[in-house]
Recover the amino acids of this structure.
């Protein structure tokens, strides 16, 4: 990872990162107003054609602007607008994308552009990985979650009725363009959900970054552009470094699931969509911190700091009472459960991850202490 920062005439600084993955390396550009820059996007569209995939919520806000940039540069643009929602991240939507690409005779040199949150990014990335065995792909993430998390790391895919993200591919984009201006139309609840993953990156990897988030949480919640840009930069750097070391999740990449074992149990226990993923992860991190503290890995003051920060980010800190038996069942089906024992990602100390199984009686204490 290498970073460089340049000031633009408009006093907003632009941050450029490079994700180092050998021949699959690519740049991430972060800043305010990047979708008004006529050169930045078109630089990454090598051929004459581009296909933009978006949804009916983001399209009305940003599609015309992005389409014009490309058309002004002489590109032929196909726009595909899908219905909004996680429930649309399906085989059916993927086929709709292929239907349009084929009907419009998009060739192998067509660059696919994902304009939207993680749902659009994951689906478009998978479409790009498989259309004509792979076409170039650019990500324009428009939610905080997609800017700090899903647009980095190359996981693409769709849901199956029997499981989330069960069909997919690893496929890296040519570039990621994260315009913080787009976050100003994002609902507060969605912004908070993205902050959960930002806090996670500090908690597991970088204690000074955790301190910085703590000092700047009010600015982040108020959508201060400079604070948002730095939180995105540092998150992308941390995630990209983990991915560089373990691109296909052989081991280390699992640490990015801090808070997720509890979080997934909340999401599926309540029924998907009841809590946002980031909300469940936020609460899940409080539970993982509680467990870390009970095992003597962090002190009570540290657990309280994490809880206060998650609360200040607008996220829930008390888990729903699903019943102990149901909690255990739900955590046992989690992907990270191998060889019969639930593996938890804990912190020891704040800023460093530890993957371990835990004694059942301590786990039960955490469940009792953290649920309503
Ligand atoms: P999302 O894509 O559903 O976006 C959330 C909501 O915000 C949607 O209604 C969307 O239309 C709307 N929206 C997007 N940008 C907006 C804007 N600028 N202004 C106003 N509204 C806007 O959800 P998400 O949280 O971005 O992403 C969640 C998805 O990402 C899940 O499907 C998850 O599986 C996936 N994900 C993937 C990875 C990965 O590594 N590939 C990592 C984390 C999450
Ligand atoms: Mg997550």
């Amino acid at each position: 990872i290498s970073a460089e920062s340049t000031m633009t005439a408009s006093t907003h600084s632009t941050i450029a990162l490079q994700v180092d993955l050998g021949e699959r390396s690519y740049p991430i550009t972060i800043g305010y107003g990047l979708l008004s820059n006529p050169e930045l996007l078109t630089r990454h569209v090598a051929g004459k054609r581009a296909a933009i995939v978006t949804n009916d919520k983001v399209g009305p806000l940003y599609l015309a602007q992005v389409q014009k940039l490309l058309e002004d540069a002489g590109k032929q643009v196909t726009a595909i607008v899908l219905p909004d929602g996680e429930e649309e991240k399906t085989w059916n939507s993927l086929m709709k994308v292929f239907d349009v690409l084929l009907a419009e005779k998009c060739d192998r040199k067509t660059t696919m552009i994902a304009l939207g949150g993680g749902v659009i990014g994951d689906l478009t990335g998978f479409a790009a990985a498989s259309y004509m065995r792979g076409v170039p792909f650019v990500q324009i993430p428009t939610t905080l979650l997609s800017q700090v998390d899903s647009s980095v790391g190359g996981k693409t895919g769709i849901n199956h009725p029997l499981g989330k993200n069960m069909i997919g591919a690893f496929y890296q984009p040519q570039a990621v363009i994260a315009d913080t201006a787009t976050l100003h139309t994002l609902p507060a609840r969605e912004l908070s959900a993205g902050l959960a993953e930002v806090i996670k990156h500090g908690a597991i990897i970088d204690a000074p970054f955790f301190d910085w988030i703590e000092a700047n949480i009010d600015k982040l919640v108020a959508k201060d552009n400079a604070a948002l840009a730095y939180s995105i930069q540092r998150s992308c750097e941390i995630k990209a470094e983990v991915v560089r070391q373990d691109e296909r999740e052989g081991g280390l990449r699992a640490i990015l699931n801090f808070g997720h074992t509890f979080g997934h149990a909340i999401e599926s226990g309540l029924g998907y969509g009841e809590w946002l993923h980031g909300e469940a992860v936020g609460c899940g991190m409080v539970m993982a911190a509680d467990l870390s503290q009970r095992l003597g890995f962090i002190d009570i003051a540290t657990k309280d700091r994490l809880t206060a920060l998650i609360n200040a980010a607008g996220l829930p800190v008390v888990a729903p009472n699903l019943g102990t038996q149901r909690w255990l069942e739900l955590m046992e089906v989690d992907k990270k459960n191998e060889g019969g024992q639930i593996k938890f990602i804990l912190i020891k100390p704040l800023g460093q991850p530890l993957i371990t199984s835990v004694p059942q009686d301590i786990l039960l204490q955490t469940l009792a202490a953290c649920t309503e």
